[in-house]
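Re: weekly structure request thread

Next one in the queue (428 aa):
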Amino acid sequence: MNPAHEAHQGGPRIGYVLKVYPRFSETFIVTEILAREAQGEDLSIYALRPTTDARFHPEIARVAARVNWVSRPQRAIDLWNQLTTGLTRQDDRKRFAAIMPVLAELSGDEVAQGVELARQARRDSITHLHAHFASLAGRVAWIASALTGIPYTVTTHAKDIFHESVDPVWLRRICADAQRVIAISRYNEDYLGTMLEGTRATVSLRYNALELDRFSYRAPQPVSATRAEPLRVCAVGRLVPKKGFADLVEAVRILVSSGVEVEVELAGDGEERERLAEQIDRLGLAGRIRLLGPLTQAEVRDLLARSDVFAAPCIEAADGNIDGLPTVVLEAMACGTPVVATAVSGLPEVVHDGVTGILLPPGDPASLAVALRGIALGEVDTVSLSRGARALIEEQFDSRAQAEVLAAWQSDPVPAPSMYLADREGAA
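Done, posted below.
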């Protein structure tokens, strides 16, 4: 038993179930864990896949929770051995048999990982499981809960509920049996209310949050039309269609063609990198738009500090994937960098047009160009937008408040609810 467990004998022990840990793009999970550890909670992490990231945020070194690898069998014999090792108790075998009809819908390695998570959670005296994403992590937590009776909660995000690949039967099953389903925006909360109708699932809003001490506020310098320097724009995110970065590139083309000097620094990496690079070259913007690659949070803060405006031109991708509420937008607002964003999913909940930022229709590069031109010409009171944004972040997005709420929701080791074994017809 590790020292943290020894120090928390008899108290709640929370097991975080994560597809990958650590993951460079999921800073919100590390922030959440750090805030909960800061208030004295006993946490363990259960990772279902090894990380493939080449870089890591320094904040990961501050996480005290033990990281447990939930083995994923690659061969049939290993799968069988993992099942038999995990199902040594007679009551576990009975529970396993009871849920076998729905487990047959899943891949064997997922089922084996669910059994292994159950074994490890019982070994570690976990009183509550918390999964991030109602997809792989949610399914594995569901299996472990069904076998052990340990209750679980699940935080839903974006791709796990909006994407065309989402299985609505399993989404309803996971959410119905969860002690609580956490939505990271009111938009998500409303969507889940419709998707989960009839399941008696408890859906609660809790925004992702920030460690505000790491995001000090700096009021922007007013932009003047007579300023000699170009407008400095930054954007941060994975280079994937839903981020809408192709629209940002097109907006820069429009600005340059109208005589507005602008420079863009775009941080991140992903499947769209080559396509974006080709678009930038084709439009003759190589000297105006730089692709920086992935940055740590500290490097992002430096980027925000040297930028006049942060752009979040999010869209709904062709496969239905949209952002929930990008954490980096919150970081920009916290730091004082004025935000221009599109009205997608949860963004209108934080970017209040003319109050905390500028809100635009998605998929409209011309509107984005107009907004950026207004800032470049000094026609926008960016200082007022910046102050309004910081006030909102301090009021609603402090990770310490988030940790207190999550702890209250997960403190009672009540038995897991009876399994929601709806078939496809019943869950339609």
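The CA atoms of residues 90 and 96 lie 10 Å apart. The chain has a mean pLDDT of 92.
Next request, please.
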